[in-house]
Amino acid sequence: YCQKKTVEQIQNGKEILEIACGTGIGTEYVARKFPNAKILALDLSPKMVALAKKRLAPYQNVQVRIGNVQNLKLNRKFDTIFCTSAFHHFPNPKRAMQEMRKVSKKSAKIIITDVNLPPLIINNFLFKLEPGFIRMYSRKEFTLLFDQADINVKKQVRIGVGALMTIGTVSGLR
Known about the structure:
The protein has helices at 2-8, 25-33, 46-56, 93-102, 120-126, 139-148; strands spanning 15-19, 38-43, 62-66, 78-84, 104-115, 151-159, 163-170.
């Protein structure tokens, strides 16, 4: 559900990057919507990359590989970057946003959709039970993370009862 809602916000894209693609569900939605786009899907887990490669094998415009959002070593830039239901796993969210910004074209759209169940204090404690969970972020915290990376927040929207989508655009080149 979150992947579909996130992909709906992508209006056009020639170069699309998915961060933490997992099994490739979101990537598949993008590949169907933009069959002529060049799509790169990254995940830190070799197991997830293997599953995504299997799912996405029919799509010639998709490349799947191991990649770490904390250290994106890419020789190309993207007009759309998205990440769904994974941001709460990132150990250094500020660095993750800076890395996404680093591989963005001018006027790129960056969309982060992540778990967000108020009140965050209770849920941050409860979600410690999820392997790899670090923390949930509030609207204000996402706005600050985007601002610190020089990405302008254009919109924040709740997705169902359990997620928050933050959409930003890159205003210029650093």
